[in-house]
Design brief:
- The structure is a single chain.
- The protein contains 7 helices and 11 strands.
- It is an alpha+beta fold.
- The strands form 2 sheets. Strands 1, 2, 3, 4, 5, 6 and 11 form a 7-stranded mixed sheet that branches.
- It starts with 10 loop residues before the first strand and ends with a strand.
- Bound molecules: cytidine-5'-monophosphate.
Length: about 300
Amino acid sequence: MRDATSWTQGLTVEAPAKVNLTLRVLGVRDDGYHDLESVVALVALFDSLVFEPADGLGLVCRGMEVPGGEDNLVLAAARVLADECRPGQGAQIRLEKRIPPGRGFGGGSSDAAAALVGLNTLWGCGLGREELARLGARVGSDVPLFLASPIAVMRGRGERVEPVAADSSWWLVLAWPDYEMPTAGVYAAYDRLGASTDGVAAAAVLDHLAGPAHEARPFLVNDLEPAADSMRCGRFDVRGCLERAGAAAVGMTGSGSAYFAVADTQAEANRVADAARAAGAETCVATLLADGKDQQERPS
Ligand code: C5P
């Protein structure tokens, strides 16, 4: 589903990517979901959404391929908001996709959160961020974190988000392979394999955000990594690629298939990204988001 028309009009909301700096699985719940503790950082790699008044709800996408039609979380979020405060209200939504889907960067959830933010304005609903986060949790576990702060601790199924007033000058190298990881499949594999039991608390990384990247290395734990690795079946090894590229510290985001490397300087990040790209990974260098830069709305 692509659109070739002008994208210059309407209300624009930028939807950032995220990385899970850490992710611990604390247990399985009665509903099959997993109780998590995860430190999540928003990253300056953005999808863009443009909203215009229209009779029905419509979505057109360009850029990277995304699930279209009824499966797209943007439309799911629009429907949840309409049902809550503007039944039958319409909008034409244009999504420019730059965050690679199915890699653990939360692009679909971020787009859904941006849809709630944009349509809340377009339709004059007047809901606050907390109310939007409550609606977002109905759309996907990761949606509320995109309505919180640039760095946050996520707990429960993902719906309990505690903002963290942390600062970091780290540069990130985002690296991903040409295959996606199915989130539900990775959690199912986790249930079969069990947790890694090194006992590092998810929040321990917060004490290292202001320090040198290499000191964060033991703290970038993700309990889903052995499960995701078991589903790789010999395909491209992104962690190995980043480590061979000289990364100071590497972590897996979400349920994969993407990884990130932490660097102290832009030059170091570029060097690691270039080496990883030469070895076959897709890469992108990005900073962490600073406070006040998440999902900014702007009329265009
Ligand atoms: O909530 P969402 O649709 O994003 O989750 C996708 C799948 O990931 C769920 O169906 C579930 O299998 C798994 N999941 C989980 N525990 C979580 C989040 C997701 O088991 N906390």
